[in-house]
Write the structure tokens for this entry.
Amino acid sequence: MNVRSDVSEDPLQAAITRLDGAMSRVEGLAGHLRARAERAELEAAQSRDADDDRSRLAAALDEAQGREAALHQAAQEASDALDRAIGDLRLMMQEEAE
């Protein structure tokens, strides 16, 4: 009788063992793919959040720039009023000195 030690005695058991191994590999790959998909979904959500943040920041910047322009205009008007008042005071002082 010629029996090889590397051949399983039961072909059905050998097929089951190979099928179990293949299923384990498939399950491992499926788990890996699920993890990658979850990471991709998380990164997409973070990207959307970052885009929303950028939009909010851009709107806040536009609003701040509008306030800055209004404050600049008010400061210029106050400066002009002070210049006129100083000029009026100088004129009054010159008139009193004469």
Observations:
- The helical segments are 11-97.
- The two ends are 142 Å apart (CA to CA).
- The mean pLDDT is 90.
- The CA atoms of residues 14 and 26 lie 18 Å apart.
